């Protein structure tokens, strides 16, 4: 999916203002208007904690860059644990034309040629296909965490797979696709269709988001160890953001089964690579 153009954004902003007049919960808007109010990937606090623990496997006070961070919804959560974390976003208009505040930790720039220094970790969350700048990113970090929508944006030019750029794949996990969450919320709360139809529609879902961790070989085992430690305490109330109950409600619980092709996967289950 291409990022929205400015005309689309002001249109979306108007739609958001209308939506707020009849919305059932403040926590719905991040899934219905992901670019304006949330993120294109559907995350929980455990995703943030995993990303943080990966960064901490390199240094106590690691440097971190979120490329294409948008308004920085995920980045601001990461910054609660990694205060030095920065973002890079090339679309300056999305801040200034909509009158949104741009924090100093988000730099306006193009990841293709404007990453100025080396970072302990670079996070690439949901970029659009078309530009392959993997070699540029590979010069700037030893650890890459990337998320992308399966089926949609990755591919030859999608710039998502980093093997072959000196990295090993370390671990991966699956989260629900925001499109499925969005559809289920719309069906359940904002359209008049019967429960039976909602149920049969929910059986059709199958999109999903993949999270891949890549590192230079020397960090691989340490990252796996940190991730294993981090995942021990994941299934508890403290490790949750308020909006996560929306995911539970529409059937995307932690370790919920999801069918991908012919295989059953468990949402958020970490798969480690040898
Ligand atoms: C699909 S949006 C995802 C935004 C955010 N990461 C999220 O998950 O919601 C992709 C973002 O990447 C930005 N972007 C695309 N190419 C970029 C580049 N070369 N350098 C920096 N930002 C870029 C776009 O302007 C857009 O805001």
From TrEMBL:
InterPro entries: SAM-dependent_MTases_sf. Gene3D superfamilies: Vaccinia Virus protein VP39. This is Class I SAM-dependent methyltransferase. It comes from Candidatus Nitrosocosmicus franklandianus.
């Amino acid at each position: 999916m291409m990022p929205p153009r400015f005309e689309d954004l002001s249109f979306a902003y108007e739609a958001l203002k209308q939506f707020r007049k009849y919305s059932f919960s403040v926590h719905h808007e991040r899934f219905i208007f992901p670019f304006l109010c949330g993120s294109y990937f559907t995350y929980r606090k455990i995703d943030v904690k995993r990303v943080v623990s990966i960064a901490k496997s390199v240094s106590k006070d690691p440097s971190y860059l979120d490329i294409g961070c948008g308004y920085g919804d995920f980045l601001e959560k990461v910054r609660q644990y990694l205060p030095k974390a920065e973002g890079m976003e090339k679309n300056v208009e999305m801040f200034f034309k909509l009158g949104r505040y741009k924090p100093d930790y988000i730099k306006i720039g193009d990841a293709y040629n404007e990453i100025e220094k080396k970072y302990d970790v670079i996070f690439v969350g949901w970029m659009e296909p078309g530009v392959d700048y993997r070699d540029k990113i590979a010069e700037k970090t030893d650890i890459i965490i990337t998320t992308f929508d399966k089926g949609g944006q990755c591919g030859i030019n999608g710039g998502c797979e980093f093997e072959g750029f000196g990295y090993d794949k370390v671990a991966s996990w699956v989260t629900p696709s925001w499109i499925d969450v969005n559809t289920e919320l719309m069906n359940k709360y904002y359209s008049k269709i019967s429960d039976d139809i909602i149920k049969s529609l929910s059986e059709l879902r199958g999109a999903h988001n993949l999270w891949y961790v890549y590192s230079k070989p020397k960090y691989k085992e340490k990252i796996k160890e940190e991730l294993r430690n981090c995942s021990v305490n994941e299934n508890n109330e403290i490790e949750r953001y308020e909006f996560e109950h929306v995911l539970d409600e529409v059937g995307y619980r932690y370790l919920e089964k999801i069918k991908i092709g012919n295989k059953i996967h468990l949402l958020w289950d970490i798969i480690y690579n040898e």
